[in-house]
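for the writeup, i need someone to sanity check this before i put it in the appendix. the sequnce is what the collaborator sent (i think, or maybe the updated version? ugh). structure was predicted straight from it, no edits. if anything looks off just tell me and ill rerun, i have time this weekend
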Amino acid sequence: QVRLVESGGGWVQTGGSLRLSCAASGYTFGTDLMAWFRQTPGKEREGVAAIDTDGEISYADFVKGRFTISHDKAKNTLDLQMNNLKPEDGGMYYCAAESTGIGPSGEYEFNYWGRGTQVTVSS
């Protein structure tokens, strides 16, 4: 059974930082695409950052220069360092692993998802 569990969410003031971590059990990160997403109630899930099997990293425009995604092989975690947070960064953050390819939505779909960790940024 594969399980992904996010942690590190919380409340911060604008300009603050948080470090999210996604721990995997029954699965080894790095064997396929891995990514972070976020979602606000009433809005569609949106990709935040991803790392492919070659180590190539991609970021959504709204987090470039502020967020850093990383894969800690020793700990088997997928991490997201978030700096200079803005109120609009708030939402539920999810990690995902093992892409099944591009789905009908035009985005990569994944076999495994975590339950999410809440991030709240006050103005």
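The mean pLDDT is 95. The two ends are 40 Å apart (CA to CA).
thx in advance!!
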